[in-house]
C-alpha cells in the first residue's frame, strides 16, 4: 500500500443515461462485485469515525465494512432495485432514498462521508457543498474505486473484449470534488480476489455499460467472458484470480 501527497487523479464520469440502471442487475452486482479491502476502509475513515454516511451504498458492499468500524452508519442509495437488494443482504439496516446532491441527513451529523465506486456518477458542483453540509467541521470525505489491474495479461484481454463490444474499461481521468474541499490525500492498495467463473461473469454483467447493451450483444458478451474466465482459472481450484488496484482519496472539510 502506498500513500501519496495531495493532488487529484483518476475518473471520468460515466454517461448520465446509464446512471440509474444498476437496479436491473442488482443481484449480479451483489454476487460479482468485490468487497473493499480492510486497509482501504480503515484509511478512508481516519481516526474519528463514530458516525458515517455511505453515499451510493448500492447493495451494501462497503456498508458491511463500515458497520464493523463505526458507531452508526447511514446508507444512502438512489436506485430502488439496489435498495431492495441492500435490504435483503443487510436486514435491519436502513437505507435511505437520496443522492450525493441531496443527502437526507441533518447538518453536521457525520464524522465521515464515504462513496465506494460511486463519486463518478455525481455532479461535484452540487455534491461537494452538500457533503460539507452534513459533515462536522474538519470531517472527512473518502472516495474509493476497485479497478481491475490490466497489468495482468488475462484482465488486459478482458478489457479488449469489452472494448470490442463498444463498451469501455474503467477510464482514468481527473477525480473532481472541488470547494469547499481542498486537495486530496491518495492511497493505492493492490490485492487479488479469487472467484468462481460465474462471479467473473456477474462482475461484468453488473457494469452500467453492459446493462445498457441489447440482449443479443449481452448474451454474446457472456459467452466470451465465460470462455476467457475459464482460461484464466486455476487448474486445481477452478477459481479465477482477479487482480485489483483499489484507489482511495481523502478530503477534509473546513474546520
Strand and helix map with partners:
Elements: E1 2-4, E2 10-11, H1 26-32, H2 38-45, E3 51-55, H3 61-67, E4 72-76, H4 80-89, E5 95-96, E6 110-116, H5 124-134, E7 135-148, H6 153-164, E8 172-173, E9 185-195, H7 197-205, H8 208-211, H9 215-232, E10 240-252
Parallel strand pairs: 3-4, 3-6, 4-5, 6-7
Antiparallel strand pairs: 1-9, 2-8, 7-10, 9-10
Helix pairs in contact: 1-7, 6-9, 7-9
Observed structural traits:
single chain, 255 residues, alpha/beta, Rossmann fold, two-stranded antiparallel ribbon, 10 strands, globular
Architecture overview:
This protein has 255 residues and is α/β, with parallel strands linked by helices. It has a domain at 2-147 and 172-192 and 245-252: Vaccinia Virus protein VP39 (Rossmann fold), CATH 3.40.50.150. Helix content is 34%, strand content 25%. The chain is built from 9 helices and 10 strands. The strands form 2 sheets. It has an 8-stranded mixed sheet with strand order 1-9-10-7-6-3-4-5. Strand 3 (51-55), helix 3 (61-67) and strand 4 form a beta-alpha-beta unit. Helix 1 (26-32) crosses helix 7 and helix 6 packs antiparallel against helix 9 (215-232). The protein is globular, with a radius of gyration of 18 Å. The relative contact order is 0.21. Residues 1-19 have low confidence and may be disordered.
Gap from first CA to last CA = 28 Å
So, the CATH homologous superfamily of the domain at 2-147 and 172-192 and 245-252?
A: Vaccinia Virus protein VP39
Helix and strand run:
EEHHEHEHEEHEHEEHHHE
Name of the top-level CATH class of the domain at 2-147 and 172-192 and 245-252: Alpha Beta
Low-confidence stretches: 1-19
Radius of gyration over C-alpha positions, nearest whole angstrom:
18 Å
Q: Considering DSSP H and I runs of 4 or more, what fraction of the residues is helical? A: 25-40%
| CATH topology-level name of the domain at 2-147 and 172-192 and 245-252 | Rossmann fold
* Biggest sheet statistics: 8 strands, mixed
Strand order of the largest sheet: 1-9-10-7-6-3-4-5
* CATH hierarchy: architecture of the domain at 2-147 and 172-192 and 245-252: 3-Layer(aba) Sandwich
Mean pLDDT: 88
Query: What is the number of beta strands?
Result: 10
Strand content: 25-35%
Any idea what the shape is?
globular
Structural class based on helices, strands and sheet pairing: alpha/beta
How many helix segments? 9
Amino acid at each position: 500500500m502506498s500513500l501519496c501527497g495531495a493532488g487529484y487523479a483518476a475518473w471520468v464520469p460515466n454517461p448520465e443515461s446509464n446512471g440509474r440502471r444498476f437496479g436491473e442487475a442488482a443481484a449480479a452486482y451483489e454476487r460479482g462485485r468485490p468487497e473493499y479491502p480492510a486497509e482501504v476502509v480503515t484509511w478512508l475513515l481516519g481516526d474519528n469515525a463514530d458516525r458515517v454516511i455511505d453515499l451510493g451504498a448500492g447493495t451494501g458492499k462497503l456498508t458491511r465494512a463500515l458497520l464493523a468500524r463505526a458507531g452508526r452508519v447511514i446508507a444512502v442509495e438512489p436506485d430502488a432495485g439496489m435498495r431492495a437488494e441492500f435490504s435483503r443482504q443487510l436486514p435491519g439496516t436502513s437505507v435511505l432514498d437520496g443522492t450525493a446532491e441531496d443527502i437526507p441527513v441533518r447538518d453536521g451529523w457525520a464524522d465521515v462521508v464515504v462513496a465506494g465506486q460511486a463519486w463518478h456518477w455525481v455532479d461535484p458542483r452540487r455534491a461537494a457543498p452538500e457533503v460539507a453540509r452534513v459533515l462536522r467541521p474538519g470531517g472527512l470525505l473518502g472516495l474509493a474505486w476497485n479497478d481491475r489491474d490490466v497489468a495482468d495479461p488475462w484482465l488486459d484481454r478482458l478489457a479488449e473484449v469489452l472494448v470490442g463490444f463498444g463498451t469501455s474499461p474503467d477510464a482514468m481521468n481527473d477525480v473532481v470534488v472541488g470547494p469547499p474541499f481542498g486537495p486530496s490525500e491518495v492511497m493505492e492498495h493492490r490485492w487479488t480476489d479469487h472467484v468462481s467463473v460465474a462471479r467473473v461473469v456477474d462482475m461484468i454483467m453488473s457494469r452500467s455499460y453492459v446493462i445498457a447493451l441489447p440482449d443479443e450483444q449481452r448474451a454474446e458478451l457472456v459467452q466470451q467472458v465465460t470462455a476467457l474466465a475459464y482460461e484464466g482459472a486455476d487448474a486445481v481450484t477452478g477459481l479465477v484470480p482477479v487482480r485489483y488496484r483499489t484507489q482511495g482519496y481523502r478530503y477534509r472539510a473546513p474546520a
